[in-house]
Amino acid sequence: MSFQIKNSGEAYDVIIVGSGAGGGMASKILSEAGLSVAVVEAGGDFDPAKEEDRTQLRPPWESPRRGAGTRIRPFGDFDAAIGGWDIDGEPYTRKNGTEFDWFRSRMVGGRTNHWGRISLRFGPNDFKRASIDGLGHDWPIGYDDLKPYYDKVDKLIGVFGTKEGIYNEPDGFFLPPPKPRLHELYMKKGADKVGIPMIPSRLSMLTRPINKDRGVCFFCSQCNRACQVHADFSAGTCLVHPAMKKGKVDLYTHSMVRKVTTDESGKATGVSFVSKVDLKEYKLKSRVVVLGASACESARIMMNSKSKSHPDGIGNSSGMVGRYLHDSTGTDRMAIVPSMMDRERYNEDGVGGLHMYTPWWGDNKKLNFARGYHIEYWGGMGQPAYGTGGSMDSMRKYITDEFGKPSPNGGYGAGLKKDIRKIYGSTMGMSGRGESVPMYDNYCEIDPNTVDKFGIPVLRFNYNWTDQEVNQAKHMHDTFEEILTEAGGILLGSKPGPETKYGLLAPGRIIHEVGTTRMGNDPSTSVLNSNCQAHDCDNLFVVDAGPFVSQADKNPTWTILALAWRTSDYIVSELNKKNI
Amino acid sequence: MNRRENLKLLFTGSVGTGLLFTGCSPEQQKLPARDLLSGGTIGGRTEEEKQRDKELLSETFFTDDERKKLSVMVDIIMPKDDESPAATELGVVDFMEFIMKDMPHYQTPMRGGLMWLDFEADEKFGKPFNELSEPEVIEIVEEVAWPDSAKPAYKGAVRWFNMLRNLTCSGYFSTPEGWKYMGYVGNTPNAWDGIPQEVMDKHGVKLEEKYIPQYLKPEDRGTIIEWDDDANIIG
Fold first, then answer.
1. Is residue B139 packed enough to be buried (19+ CB in 10 Å), middle (13-18) or exposed (0-12)?
2. Rounded CA Rg of chain A
């Protein structure tokens, strides 16, 4: 991690807050247009190609906790996202006894350094949900507006997949997908019997090269550690660093933005930030300010940017900033497969994620919930590390000897050791990730009583799932049981019931939070116009997932990238026309 | 593009990394043999992380007496056999020492369980646990090792032993010898070209016909992709 601090005084064409998918894309497109750009990032620089930053290909014994998670790396000691659910000195609070968990990464590239790389386009229906089911609102744009940008993102960054011709799962420019793993073919058998589709997954990893700058995947299955040959998409390696090499881009790391500054007329003039290195306040000036700090963090900055002309915060004359916060739904189930016990050993790491997935197949008109979900599958002979050999007090009974006699649960000794070896690679599971209905009453706001260690007021969350999401979670579990059983699995654990909302995870847990600065044609009910420009401040734009009107049952990153590219084109054109 | 350029491409972006360090392709790369770590986690650490690991490593949780009990117990759970070493040989007690400090929620139940061993040894044999003979130790272990048939009076101790079993396994299988015993052969960088045919045959699964021409061919990994305007791959 290196420090870079510059004294203010310089004026830029554009200041971009945040260096994740949205901020990264904006930095590339705006600098390629010849604009001078400052990227202001709250964390340190990060490049997995540098030996000092590399966690990829490290065995568990290079960690005294053998790869177990920590407070700042809850997904494991070698995970490449630095931050977590609970950052020291940077709290957030919750209201009315509700739940929301907020995952943040403080580093160049943000959460793109560890994400699952599931890169799905939103389909035509995903932009017009209110017209279909009467809930929530339509986007002011449609699939046709974003299609050219999705195409460009595919070619620039790379995603593998197959052309399927499914209306609401638009195809793209795909790299060849890897062949499935054994547990995925088991699942496919189960899905076939149940009549549910299962197709090659769409992940942004380079199975073949797309240019001369990035290496190709060598199948270590560790994309969550960020790839040293840049074969997976991370915003730092694919967007920010290339932009810095080619264009006029200055990167300000360890710089925590407090607010967007404005002039008398209410125009944005730049940002004010705290340097985490010397704890001093700095100001940067620019003609345009672009927020890409993540849906909630950008909303926080806007609500904290109060001035005479923006008494409720910049961009917030509608009072909609922070409203309509929504995350994907999620719940999981697993099974053990007797015929996969004691199986042949071979390298089945593959890419760092699923090789097959299930896109939403149902017809919501015939169901008691409005929106769909996709299914992610997992299993296989993964790297033994912290946690391996666990739960034999409840799982050993599934192992039978040559006469079909089950082992007793628990135990010790050479027999236990052998049974753990038998069971290795024989469990598999699935995760549903679904669309929730955006609600006015699910929001983040500024907590009037709490500040972080920089004295910046923090967010307070209020979030409740509705029956739509709860019924969807129930449907997920019914489906999971059918597929896993038909695939030859014995279900593990018990099916969650209504007392746990059918296992529906707390909002925020899927880390797809969107909607806090949503776009719309009506300035009284939306924060941004259809070009992601603030209704009440012409030179302020948002490029993260805040502008999403609805989430779809897809992971948001590919849409963030496409939307950020489109917004950046609009900024260039407006600057050229001298409109801003 | 010629073959040399193709090969060069495979490495692009890897300058200065471990992959290029040995001067061979990812396919030929052998992971260096490494000893068990005695310090903090290697790679990509923030200053806070380095400091925390250092602090944890400088503290001591287990007493000598407790370490002795643990050593006996972990070697009963994961003993030496003709294929693999005993847990103590793989540093499992040191691993647990670190975990106790890293995940403090383990501290009270672990210490409590180790104290219970003395109680039980005294009840049964009238001496402290560390003075028991092997058959005497096994007699205690038998009371707590089988959750489904253990006497109700041992419920609490069974819970502790479950935790001890889990931690022992974590510490055991996360070592080079643990990988070897398990037969883990992943993370030897290579092109994934699917499940071996004989494995698919044995499990009665096969690739879907329509996808076979579309799957990645390892020999294409050096060639920059090209599409036509309809997103068909043409090169």
1. middle
2. 24
Tokens of A104: 């943040």
Chain A residue at shortest CA distance from B33: A59
Q: Do A390 and B53 touch (CB under 8 A)?
A: no
CA A126 from centre of chain: 18
The sign of the dihedral angle between the CA atoms of B148, B153, B156, B157 is negative
Beta pairing class for A11-17 and A255-262? unpaired
Is B230 part of a structural domain of the chain? no
Instruction: Determine, yes or no, domain membership for B169.
Output: yes
The size of the A-B interface in CB pairs under 8 A is: 326
- In the β-sheet with A457-462, what is the strand arrangement from edge to edge? A93-94, A457-462, A443-451
Chosen for mutation from B15, B51, B164, B225 (greatest number of chain A CBs closer than 10 Å) is: B225
- For chain A positions 316-345, those within 8 Å of chain B (CB to CB) are 339-340, 343-345
Q: Inter-chain contact B195–A181, Cβ cutoff 8 Å?
A: yes
Pull the structure tokens for residue A38.
Answer: 């400052």
Query: Alpha-carbon distance A250 to A247, whole Å?
Result: 9
Q: Is residue B23 a part of any domain in this protein?
A: no
Handedness of CA A297, A299, A303, A308 (dihedral sign): positive
Cβ partners under 8 Å of residue A260, min gap 6: A268, A270, A271, A289, A291, A301, A302, A305, A314, A540
Half-sphere exposure of A160 (CA within 13 A, CB side): 31
CA distance A462 to A368: 25
CATH number for domain A1-48+69-158+233-319+514-580, candidates 3.30.230.10, 3.50.50.60, 2.40.10.340, 3.40.720.10: 3.50.50.60
Which positions ≥6 away from B159 have C-beta within 8 Å?
A: B109
- ipTM of the predicted structure? 0.95
Supply the pTM of this predicted model.
0.94
- What would the two tokens of residue A353 be? 């994620």
Q: How far is CA A295 from CA A211, A515, A547, B145, B233, in A?
A: 31, 7, 8, 49, 36
3-state class (DSSP) for residue A359? coil
Whether residue B195 and residue A351 make contact (CB cut-off 8 A), yes or no, is no
Name residues whose C-beta falls within 8 Å of residue A513's C-beta, 6 or more positions apart in sequence. A102, A294, A295, A296, A325, A326, A327, A507, A545
Q: Token pair of A15, please?
A: 């200041």
Q: pLDDT at residue B133 above 80?
A: yes
Task: Classify residue A40 as left (phi > 0), alpha (psi -120 to 50) or beta.
Answer: beta
**What is the C-alpha separation between A526 and B124, in angstroms, rounded?**
73
- Confirm or reject contact between A79 and chain B (CB < 8 A): no
Look up the domain containing B96 and give its range.
47-182
pLDDT in tens, A260-297: 999 999 999 999 999 999 999 999 999 999 999 999 99
Q: Mind listing the pLDDT tens digit for each residue in A74-87? A: 999 999 999 999 99
CA atoms of A346 and A336, how far apart (whole Å): 19
In a domain, B24, yes or no: no
Structural domain spans, chain A: 1-48+69-158+233-319+514-580
Half-sphere exposure of A495 (CA within 13 A, CB side): 15
CA distance between the termini of chain B: 11
pLDDT exceeds cutoff 70 at A429: yes
Token couple for A179? 């062949």
Counting the structural domains of chain B, the total is: 1
- Put simply, the answer to whether A54 touches B184 (Cβ < 8 Å) is no
- pLDDT score for A199: 98
Query: What are the chain B neighbours of A59 within 8 Å (beta carbons)?
Result: 31, 34, 176, 179, 187
CB neighbour list of residue A117: distance below 8 Å, 6 or more residues apart: A203, A204, A205, A223, A232, A233, A352, A353
Instruction: Give yes or no for residue A470 having a pLDDT over 80.
Output: yes
